[in-house]
Structure formats: C-alpha cells, structure tokens
Amino acid sequence: MSSMFRSPWVARDRTGRIALDLPDGLVAALPRLGDEVDSLLNSDSPAIQRLFPTAYPDDPERDAGYQAMVRGELIDRHRDGIALIAATIDDEYLTDEQLGAWLTTVNALRLVLGAVLDISDDGAEPDLDEDDPLLPAWQMYHVLSLLLDDIVSALSS
Q1: Strand order across the beta sheet in which 10-12 lies
Q2: Are 65 and 14 in contact, with CB atoms under 8 Å apart?
Q3: 10-156 adopts what CATH topology?
Q4: CB pairs under 8 A, 24+ apart, for 128-137?
Q5: Which of 50, 100, 102, 122: disulfide with 111, CB 3.0–4.6 Å?
Q6: Along the 157 residues of the chain, how does pLDDT read in single tens digits?
Q7: Domains of the chain: which residue ranges?
C-alpha cells in the first residue's frame, strides 16, 4: 500500500536509526484519535470489540472468564501505547521498541476505525461525496494504513 509518490513517514536512515517525519495533520490527528479510542476502552462499544477478540467462540461462559482475566491487562497495554504515541509524536527518532509499540497501537486504532466504518473483508469502499460526514474517517483509515505500511517496512529493514 506504500506509495512511491511520497516519502515514507517512518524509515531507517543510513545510520540505522528510525526517523519519524509525519505530516502536520497526522501529528495533530493521531493523538486525538488515540484519546477517542481511550475513552471507549472501558465501554461496551461495538467499535472496540475487535481489540478484545473472543477466545472461546463456542463457549460463552469460558470466554467470559477469559475476558475477565485479560481485559484489564489489554486495556492497560492499549493505554500505554496511546500515551507513548502522544509522548513521542514530535520526536525525530524512535527506538525499535518504541516503533514496535507504535505498530501495535496504530493497528488497534485502525481496527477501531474500521469497525466504526463497518469495513468488510471484501474491500469495497462506499462512493462518498465531499460533504459526507464519514469522509474524514475513511481518509484517516487510509492514512493509518499508509503509516502501518511504513512502520512495518522500517521494522523489517
């Protein structure tokens, strides 16, 4: 999904350090999106269910026990990742460990946004008008996809 018509926002430089060069709009939007997702983490919103997958789909009682055991830890991890992005979004360089946390968190944000947009596996996108209220969310979904691609490329190089 990476475009050859833009410079990567996350890439290793010649010294092996991970350089971060995000567009200003993404620097402003990413922490806000993180805050919005953070506010939903303790809710039963369908938008965040993908962050807490069912472990035992054929056994609701066993799955409820599993969810009770791990949900708090998962919420803490998501919150830590959201806080890390907010704390490092203006940094020029990230460590591999920080970028790994970015990967997990950006993916989680994208999953939540995909759930809000009801994105299916068929990849079909609606034909939206410029004044459609969902257009900014679809645009952010695509930006997060590009960012994820850059992160994966940087981590694998």
Answers
A1: 10-12, 18-20, 93-94
A2: no
A3: Globin-like (1.10.490)
A4: 137/113
A5: 50
A6: 545 588 999 999 999 999 999 999 999 999 999 999 999 999 989 999 889 988 999 999 999 999 999 999 999 999 999 999 999 999 999 999 999 999 999 999 999 999 999 887 656 667 777 887 878 888 999 999 999 999 999 999 8
A7: 10-156
